[in-house]
Amino acid sequence: MKLFQRVLYGWLIVAMLIGAGAPAARAQLSLPNLMQQKVTAAPDGVRRLGAIEVAPVRFEGRELFSVVSPTVRDRNNPGNLVPVEVRAELIEAQLKRVVSPKPLKITITTDDPPQPPLQLPRPQSASSTDFDPRSLRVYYSTLNGAIVIFATDDYHTKPLKILTITDQDADYYGLTPEELAQQWRTELDERLKRSLEERQPEQLLLQIEQAALATAVVAGISVGLWLLRGLVKLRDRVLAERQAQSGAEPMPQTEVAADGAGRQAILAAFRQQFTLQRRRGLLAIASWLLSSALVVTWIVGASFILALFPWTRELALQILSVPFLLVSIWFASGLINRIGDVLIDRFGNVWEENGFFSLDDAQRKSLRIATISRALKVTKTSLVIAVGITFALGLIGIPVASILAIGGILAFALTFGLQNIIKDVANGCLILWEDQYALGDVIAVGAATGLVENLNLRITQIRTSEGRLITIPNSAVVQVENLTRNWSRVDFTVEVAYESDIERALGLLKDVSQKMYDEPYWRERLIDLPEVLGVDALHHSGMLLRVWIKTRPLQQWPVGREFRLRVRLALEEQGIAIGTPQLTLAAQNEHSTREENRSHHPETDW
């Protein structure tokens, strides 16, 4: 489970790095061969509308407007056509020139006397940018029959051409070229002036003050969340220690299940574990929310600080686009996973308290709930992580349909190599559905016999009486013997000598059975009065007497040991001998044997 979570976190971190290092419209990945775009397909961020293509023009991370160009069918050979994305990039480059820093003025001194200037030089702007924000003017004019938008100020002799409005642009917006030019001119004039003012030294000081205040607020919130998370972790650590202590107590095994433990000890241990696990599940949700709030605080704080400065505003918007959505997927996946654990535990608790399945006794139901809960949690975690990775890959540019198609192909290819795992999972589902055995049952699979300590959809782990942990794939469970399903039985046999009074011996067994059944301690472990069947066989060593003792699950071993002890003492007290093997030897005289042979064969010469 933890391995799957690490894989998901790794994918999300890689995707965040990819998304933060590229523009939002171009933060895309493509799979080789299978995912390559065809030559006729439009690039990312370009919309194809029949004979025209539309691309957005962005400035400082925000979209200003969209430009239109004729459709280019083959990007490798565009001919005389200019792809629309190239036109948009040229416009963005001209806008960046307007707000670029003022170029350094290099003065070269020589030994020659200075020459008088031919004309008066233009005054230099006091602005730190190439264009002056106070005198910037954005206007449009007709040039060679086309409407062109220019930018100039009092300190540039030649205006800067920003873009040319085409008929396709006007038709796309449903305006005349002059109306569209006026609309774009107003928007560019306002946006460029604001951007230039933000790049001046006095504004920079104000931005630094705001960034320092935001940093202090983020730090204060982070410290508070970190302290709360520490308290939750401390409480969870205390519960984990209690859970470890309760789980460290040895559980009754196959032949040592007596000693006052039995099924009740197993149920008590499971219930205590489930109670602690439910409480830890709620703490896990609280810890996850605090951790996620801490991460969100850092991301939002970093984005806010970066958005204060015009040079990093585009990066802030990129962080709030793809990486923030990836963090949201990571947060949602973890939260759903933990809420799922709590809901499964809650469902098990309701199942146990209300008894939806009346055919199961309380003990059996508790064990079955524990088994199904563990299997459901593993399956649920796998599904949540798989869905989270699918959404994350789709967010960074890999189509979900292609992911599912490739996953289907890989699953089909892996089917041949992972047939045993598929059989394990299928058989594990049948084991849980049919309730063949559960946690706490003592089973025999082949030559292995032990207590079921772990059961999921793939494997079954049993602990033998010698303490060995045996792992069995569920596909190998062809025939299983459940020694503790609903009830158990002691098959007691004893041989008494032929010289013994058989009626007296049977009466003694009945007396021992009745006395043991009447005692409260053993009455709780017995379901019915032991049944004395009678003489079951006659051997050369004696007469075999059989008694069946029906007990509660896991109680056949302590009951059997106690009953054998009492029978042994009672037989000794009543003087009834245990059967022993008997051997009769017949010996004859050698001389008489020869005379007997001669009488039978008188013609033989001895």
TrEMBL record:
Keywords: Cell membrane, Membrane, Transmembrane, Transmembrane helix. The chain crosses the membrane at residues 211-232, 281-309, 315-336, 383-414. Residues 383-419 form the Mechanosensitive ion channel transmembrane helices 2/3 domain. Residues 591-606 have a biased composition (Basic and acidic residues). Gene3D superfamilies: 1.10.287.1260, 2.30.30.60, 3.30.70.100. It is a multi-pass membrane protein. Pfam families: MS_channel_1st, MS_channel_2nd, MS_channel_3rd. One of its GO terms (cellular component) is plasma membrane. Residues 106-131, 584-606 are annotated as: Disordered. SUPFAM superfamilies: Mechanosensitive channel protein MscS (YggB), C-terminal domain, Sm-like ribonucleoproteins. InterPro entries: LSM_dom_sf, MS_channel_1st, MS_channel_C, MscS_beta-dom_sf, MscS_channel_2nd, MscS_channel_C_sf, YbiO_bact. Residues 420-485 form the Mechanosensitive ion channel MscS domain. Belongs to the MscS (TC 1.A.23) family. PANTHER family: MODERATE CONDUCTANCE MECHANOSENSITIVE CHANNEL YBIO. This is Small conductance mechanosensitive channel. It comes from Gloeobacter kilaueensis (strain ATCC BAA-2537 / CCAP 1431/1 / ULC 316 / JS1). The lineage of its organism: Bacteria, Bacillati, Cyanobacteriota, Cyanophyceae, Gloeobacterales. The gene is mscS.
